[in-house]
């Protein structure tokens, strides 16, 4: 496969599952559009896989998602952060405390 232009890439991707994500994009195509659409396709596939996964794989997928609201990371906020902590001075301490709690929880899950 030889692609000399971004439209060539679009043409080759049209024969794949990525094609529907790029089909309505007008020319001239930009690299940022290709990246956005390919990332969107990847995220959609990941969400589909997460919905179909069973334990313990589903929990593992939630750990690597790193979305703070809908994953095992959310409970660590209530354990590590209070409203008084939300100032610039404590950001590094909060980050390290949160990261430690997350790693400990992941370690327990991995055992």
Question: Can you walk through the features of this model?
Answer:
The chain is an all-alpha fold. The protein has 2 domains: 1-52, no CATH class; 53-111, no CATH class. Helix content is 63%, strand content 0%. The chain has helices at residues 6-13, 19-22, 31-52, 57-65, 74-80, 91-110. One of its GO terms (cellular component) is proton-transporting V-type ATPase, V0 domain.
List keywords for this structure.
single chain; 111 residues; 2 domains; 6 helices; proton-transporting ATPase activity, rotational mechanism; ATPase_V0-cplx_dsu; ATPase_V0-cplx_csu/dsu
Describe the structure concisely for a colleague:
With 111 residues, the chain is mainly α.
How do the strands and helices of this protein lay out in sequence?
Elements: H1 6-13, H2 19-22, H3 31-52, H4 57-65, H5 74-80, H6 91-110
Pfam families: vATP-synt_AC39
GO cellular component, one term: proton-transporting V-type ATPase, V0 domain
GO molecular function, one term: proton-transporting ATPase activity, rotational mechanism
Q: pLDDT below 50 for ≥5 consecutive residues: which ranges?
A: none
Distance between the termini: 45 Å
> Taking all residues together, what is the mean pLDDT?
80
Order of helices and strands: HHHHHH
Largest sheet: none
How many domains make up the 3D coordinates? 2
Gyration radius, in Å? 20 Å
Q: What share of the residues lie within helices?
A: 55-70%
Tell me, briefly, the overall form: elongated
Count of DSSP helices? Answer: 6
Number of strands: 0
Strand content: under 5%
Give the class from helix and strand content and strand pairing: mainly alpha
